[in-house]
Amino acid sequence: MAPYTAYSLICLGFLLLVFCFDVKAETSEDCKGREKLCSRGMAGEGFCYNEDESDCCGGRVFAKTAGSGCCVNVWNMTARVYSHERQFCCNGTVYSSGSLDCCADVVFNTSTQVCCQGKIQKFTKGAMCCGTELKMEGQVCCSPQHQPRYAKVYNMPKENFICCGNGYINRTEYYCDFATYQPMKICSNNSVHKCCGNEAYDPRKATCCNKKVFHGKSEHWETGDGYVINHICCGGVPQSVNEEICCELRVHNRTATSQCCGTESIDTDEKVCCNGRPFKKHSKYKTKCCSDRGYYEDGEHLCCGEHEARRSVLYNVSTSDNTAKCCNTALFNSTESICCGGEVMKKMKKEDDSCCQVHTRYQTYNSKYYLCEKQGLVAKASHRQQCGRGRTIDTRGQLCCRGMIHPKPSSAIKCCGTKTFNSSNPQLLCQFGSLVKRPPRQLQQGQPNYRQRCGRHMFDTRRELCCRGVKYAKKSDAMKCCGTRLYNSSDPELTCQFGIRLQQMPKIGERQS
């Protein structure tokens, strides 16, 4: 009985420490509010839990306790809860704290060993870690600022030597580029001069490109912290920022309308650039690109695949020919063929104007008489209606709301966005595709309702105007809406175009630009 008693006590203690929820497997859709899914390794299955009250470890939910952690063993896919105060996790195994600790997934004894950047070293009095090595008294540790693991130990300090990254350099011969932590050979003791390779140069009189000095390029201006050169390098040679342009490592003279086109520089008033190739503009027709070829919108060209600039193909065909159509980059005769899934397909019947995908195959059909469903073509009926791609509905008992199919038990059921609602419910109102609660009616039945909704607010139609969700005070009957703006319609100098754009009318005698 003793072994069973001990086992029972262990289980009882474990249950007191850990509170497990024995519930039916759930999915993320079952989790509400602040709950999250604690996955147990199955496809989308686990248990819902509240992060404020519980923890998830290895697909099991436990009561949250202060200082607890989850130790996961990736080799055998097990997990265990442990206490940070008394235990630690190392490579998926829980150990008791004390003289032991973890160093890069290996357990070591802190009384005789030390962990240096993931490597265990023998403890020595007065020593300290330098990267993965131990630095003794009298030695120098050179460490890169952001990569301490790669620090190096040098035997003894030397006069005029300094650390540069993990290197130890003589500062009378080298200086340290602290941007890259690379030692650079000193080429001059003159504070004005700079190095270009191993050659010193005066940046006020020359430019350095690709470790080569170019003299005579001395455009510069003096600033408070030194000299700013008005040159940059282009293909190993200097380029004047104001006078020249660099096109794929080639220098050209710059004008106000210069633009790179491949390795060339073009005048944008005279040419267009089509994928790195220049093309001369036409004085009469608009010039466009089709892949790397230019063409004029003169009604004699058709570019197929315009949205795939590098694959588009230009055809010499009159755009007045309404039978010539594009299918991706291919040209086809629409009286004989049809574009199905980006491929040209011969019509099964001359009257066919659409195509229907059934599994992996397409077939052409006449959309006047047929509808395309997942199972294939079905004959059109007065009560059948297309709802999205490959789906139809029976309008006698279904509704299509922006591609979503819903049952329609009565004629009062209407669409609001992708959802349905009961339009006979006086408390519901559909606005801009969203359901909102209708404001309470304050007028008696039979009286006109001057209270209307304007966006999220109410307005009085007798004293206010609503311009596309924006509320204004109506100072006179001449005040009208133009988009979201209010204007005086009696003003002869103002006009509203297309109901959305307010424009100033030109005065008599003035030309309209």
From TrEMBL:
Keywords: Signal
Stretch forming the signal peptide: 1-25
One Pfam family from the record: Galaxin_repeat
Keyword field contains Signal: yes
InterPro entries noted in UniProt: Galaxin-like (IPR055284), Galaxin_dom (IPR056601)
Keyword Signal: yes
Highest taxon of source: Eukaryota
Residue ranges constituting the Galaxin-like repeats domain according to the UniProt record: 48-176, 194-307, 325-431
Full protein name: Galaxin isoform X3
Encoding gene (name): LOC106161841
